[in-house]
Each structure stands twice: as structure tokens, then as C-alpha cells.
């Protein structure tokens, strides 16, 4: 029996009863709120959801978190995002399997690999775009950067215009197979884009990097276009969403 002056020996607790707390990214919580909203409102396939701005206001979160959540729902096959038209339900949430959380975790773990594929593909598209671009291609590239600058000035991240710029480079490359590959990878590439642009300082830095790429393409300097694209993607890769993977990569670089 413990004395009145000594605390009793604590009862041993099994390790399984005290697990680390996992803090979910904010956009995962937004995903679950949207799934619940779809259920409560009894929305049917083809129904239109609230606008991005309305969702951000009602949920009390940033538009960046809403965009990330909508991208995750699109990857899972729950919604369709029609740029300029809105977000539409494709199927009831209960039909989406496996669980959305599992899909998100798997896709996050693959971000470093996705960035390696982006570097391989997009440095080549930049080189070919510098070689083959026409005046219409240059007009589209400039328009995309004007749209990105306007979005940033309005306090947004410019993700849609960023996507437009990279898509225009792929088309200017004049290689249908490369364009097809980029289209097939659109969703995972969009996740890396939004992961990077979610950092407060990244949208203007990304815009500046895009201008360097455009300058090289305008000058038809293939080597400069390749180097500018590679430098841009190195910065994007530096904000991979799996910190331990990013730290391991840096450690390998230091050892090398």
C-alpha cells in the first residue's frame, strides 16, 4: 500500500491504447464536410454544388483548402470540375471505394515520384516548344501568364492559369504522345501544383519562373527553356506533402 506521502505506482497501460494523434490536413476535413453535405442535401448525379467562393465562406476556410478538397473528390471520381461552369456530382459518396482517406494517403506518398515524372516529361516539352512554337502558341502562353498575374493580384493562387500555361507548352511541343501522357497525369500533376501554390510566397515565385520559361521559348533557345523548366520544377518538388520523403531526398543529396 502506498504511503500518504508517495504517489501510487501508475497502472501499466498497453502500448496499443495510447497511439499518436494524427492531425489531418485541413482540406481532408473539407472533403468530409462536402461528402456529408451531399448526403444531407440528397444531391443526385448531375446536380451542381456551390461555387468555390460560397463553399469557402460557408466552411470558414480558404479557397485554397476548398480547391484541394475538390481536386481530391475529382480524383476519387465523386465530382466533375468544369472550368468556367462549376462542380457537378458524378455519383453518390457511398459508391466511391476504396475510402477517400486511403486514396489521399497513397497519392501523397507518391508525390516525389510524380515530380520525377514531371521533370522527365516537362523539360522535354519545354525544349520542343522552343523549337516548334508558333505565334498562336506564344499568344496563349502570354495570356495564361496575364491571367495568373491577375489571379495573384486578387489574392488567389493562380492554379488554373498555372495549369493553362503548362498545358499550352505541351501543345506547343507538337507531340501528340507527350500531350496524351500529360493529360493522363493531369490529376496527380494538379496535386503537386496545388501543394506548391498553397505556400504564401509561391504564386509570385512561380509566375516569375514561368516568365523565364516563356522568354526562352520566345527566343527559341531550347537549352535555356529546358534549364528554366527544370529549375522551376525543382522548386515545386521542394514542397512535397510527405515531409519524411522530402527530408530523405535532401539527406541523399548532401551525402552525394
In the CATH classification, which architecture of the largest domain applies?
Up-down Bundle
Order of helices and strands: HHHEEHHHHHHHHH
Average of per-residue pLDDT values: 79
Q: CATH superfamily of the largest domain, please?
A: GntR ligand-binding domain-like
Q: How many beta-strand runs?
A: 2
Enumerate the spans where pLDDT stays under 50 for 5 or more consecutive residues.
Answer: 7-23, 240-252
Query: Which class of the largest domain in CATH terms?
Result: Mainly Alpha
Largest sheet: 2 strands, antiparallel
The CATH topology of the largest domain: Four Helix Bundle (Hemerythrin (Met), subunit A)
Major sheet: arrangement of strands: 1-2
- Total domain modules: 2
Specify Rg, calculated over alpha carbons: 22 Å
Cα shape: elongated
Q: Which structural category do the helix and sheet elements fall into?
A: mainly alpha
Can you count the helices? 12
State the helicity in percent bands.
Answer: 55-70%
What amount of the residues lies in strands? under 5%
Distance between the termini: 60 Å
Annotate the secondary structure layout:
Blueprint: H1 26-40, H2 52-59, H3 63-75, E1 79-82, E2 86-89, H4 100-109, H5 111-132, H6 135-153, H7 159-172, H8 176-184, H9 186-197, H10 202-218, H11 222-237, H12 243-255
Antiparallel strand pairs: 1-2
Can you walk me through this structure?
Helices cover 66% and strands 3% of the residues. Strand 1 and strand 2 form a beta hairpin. With 256 residues, the protein is mainly alpha-helical. The chain is elongated, with a radius of gyration of 22 Å. Helix 1 packs across helix 3, helix 5 packs parallel to helix 10 and helix 6 packs antiparallel against helix 10. The longest helix is centred in the middle third of the chain and has 22 residues. About 12% of the residues have low confidence. It folds into 2 domains: 73 residues, Arc Repressor Mutant, subunit A, CATH 1.10.10; 146 residues, GntR ligand-binding domain-like (Four Helix Bundle (Hemerythrin (Met), subunit A)). The termini are far apart.
Amino acid at each position: 500500500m502506498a504511503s500518504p506521502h508517495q504517489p501510487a505506482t501508475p497502472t501499466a497501460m498497453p502500448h496499443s491504447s495510447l497511439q499518436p494523434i494524427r492531425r489531418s490536413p485541413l482540406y481532408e476535413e473539407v472533403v468530409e464536410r462536402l461528402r456529408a453535405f451531399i448526403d444531407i442535401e440528397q444531391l443526385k448525379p448531375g446536380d451542381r454544388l456551390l461555387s468555390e467562393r460560397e463553399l469557402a465562406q460557408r466552411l470558414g476556410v480558404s479557397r485554397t483548402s476548398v480547391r484541394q478538397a475538390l481536386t481530391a473528390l475529382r480524383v476519387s471520381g465523386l465530382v466533375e470540375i468544369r472550368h468556367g461552369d462549376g462542380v457537378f456530382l458524378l455519383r453518390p459518396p457511398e459508391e466511391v471505394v476504396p475510402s477517400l482517406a486511403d486514396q489521399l494517403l497513397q497519392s501523397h506518398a507518391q508525390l516525389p515520384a510524380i515530380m520525377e515524372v514531371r521533370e522527365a516529361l516537362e523539360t522535354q516539352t519545354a525544349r520542343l516548344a522552343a523549337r516548334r512554337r508558333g505565334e498562336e502558341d506564344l499568344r496563349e502562353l502570354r495570356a495564361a501568364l496575364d491571367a495568373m498575374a491577375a489571379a495573384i493580384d486578387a489574392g488567389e493562387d493562380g492554379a488554373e492559369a498555372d495549369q493553362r500555361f503548362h498545358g499550352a507548352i505541351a501543345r506547343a511541343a507538337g507531340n501528340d504522345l507527350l500531350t496524351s501522357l500529360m493529360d493522363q497525369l493531369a490529376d496527380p500533376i494538379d496535386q503537386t501544383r496545388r501543394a506548391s501554390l498553397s505556400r504564401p510566397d509561391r504564386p509570385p515565385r512561380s509566375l516569375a519562373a514561368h516568365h523565364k520559361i516563356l522568354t526562352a521559348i520566345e527566343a527559341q533557345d531550347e537549352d535555356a527553356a529546358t534549364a528554366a523548366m527544370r529549375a522551376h520544377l525543382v522548386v515545386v518538388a521542394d514542397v512535397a506533402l510527405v515531409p519524411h520523403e522530402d527530408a530523405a531526398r535532401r539527406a541523399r543529396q548532401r551525402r552525394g
